Amino acid sequence: MPKPADPTPDFFGYADLLGDAERAELAAIRDHLEQEIKPLADAAWARAEFPFEAVEKIAAINPAGYTYPEFGDGRERGALFSGFLTLELNRVDPSLGVFCGVHTGLAMGSIHGGGSDEQRERWLPDMAAMRTIGAFALTEPEGGSDVAGGMRTTARREGDTWVLDGAKRWIGNGTFADLVVVWARDTADGHVKGFVVPKDTPGFTATKIEGKIALRTVQNADITLDGVRVPEADRLQRIDGFRDTAAILARTRGGVAWQALAVAVRAYELARAYAVDRTQFGRPIGAFQLVQDLLVKMLGNVTAMFGMTVRLAQLTEAGRGTAEQAALAKAFTTARMRECVAWARELFGGNGIVLEYEIAKFFADAEALYSFEGTREMNTLIVGKAVTGHSAFV
Question: What's the total number of domains in the chain?
Answer without folding.
Answer: 3
